[in-house]
Amino acid sequence: MNATLVNIIILQLIAHFLADFIILNDKNSREKNSNGIRSKHLYIHIAVVTFLSFVFSANLHFWWCSLVIGSLHFVTDASKAKTLKLNCNTRWVFFIDQIVHIVIITIVSWIFVNSWETPAMLFEYFGNLLRNTQLLLYVLGYLLCLKPSNIIVMQIISKWMQEKDVNDGELENAGKLIGIIERVLTLTFVILNQYSAIGFLLAAKSILRFKETTGQKRSEYVLLGTLLSFSIAIFIGIIIKVVINNYNP
């Protein structure tokens, strides 16, 4: 695969996850999904998506691609909001929405790279940094281990959320922060080939959390969330290593 294409796709994915998960907070996201095209947050979000897409392309010629990505992002998010009003399965809507965004980014990036013989970098000073595929993969991997993974875990286990006692005295958002830390550590251990450390971390986390739980449903819920969190981080780490070991720019 073309080295420029690989790097542009990675950069665009970083821009996408920053806009969709890090910058957009939960409250504005819910309002956007609830009101659709009537939501001011949808238009603000699309402006952010378009802006980050252009900035992370590091290329002046990418402006029209950013407009296309932003426009199609608007159509996708508006369709998502309309679909959610039909009381569809929110988990499937979430994953389909993200897949559509990633497919759009990949196609637009491919069209761009094949439209210009040698795209000129917007920020030549950072040219070598932005061409470092290994570094970009690490940035994308750690970014995915933050809020995106939290949301993925919550979407998967939301089916069982009603079966556990949510008012059990836990610190607000503590579970999310714990999940982020454990995924960052797990990804680091995978990159460093320290798989035994992952086992130790998983065992320590399980012992501490299970001491705090009462009841089979609660314990199973915690175990499911923990295993999903570790699995996501391990999967991301393995994918990064496979790409780095087999990618020849």
Structure commentary:
It is a single chain. By secondary structure, the chain is an all-alpha fold. It has 2 domains: 3-131, no CATH class; 152-246, no CATH class. It has helices at residues 3-23, 26-35, 40-57, 63-84, 90-113, 127-130, 133-144, 147-157, 174-191, 195-212, 216-246. Helix 9 (174-191) runs antiparallel to helix 10 and helix 9 (174-191) runs parallel beside helix 11. The longest helix is centred in the last third of the chain and has 31 residues, at 216-246. The protein is flat and about 50 Å long.
Class by alpha and beta content: mainly alpha
C-alpha Rg, in Å?
Answer: 20 Å
**Whole-number count of domains:** 2
Helix content: over 70%
Low-confidence stretches: none
- Please count the beta strands (DSSP E, at least 2 residues each): 0
Give a quick account of the main beta sheet: strands, pairing sense, barrel closure: none
SSE string, helices as H and strands as E: HHHHHHHHHHH
User: What is the count of helical runs?
Assistant: 11
Shape: flat
Strand content: under 5%
Please outline the helices and strands.
Layout: H1 3-23, H2 26-35, H3 40-57, H4 63-84, H5 90-113, H6 127-130, H7 133-144, H8 147-157, H9 174-191, H10 195-212, H11 216-246
Helix pairs in contact: 1-3, 1-5, 1-7, 2-4, 3-4, 4-5, 7-11, 8-11, 9-10, 9-11, 10-11
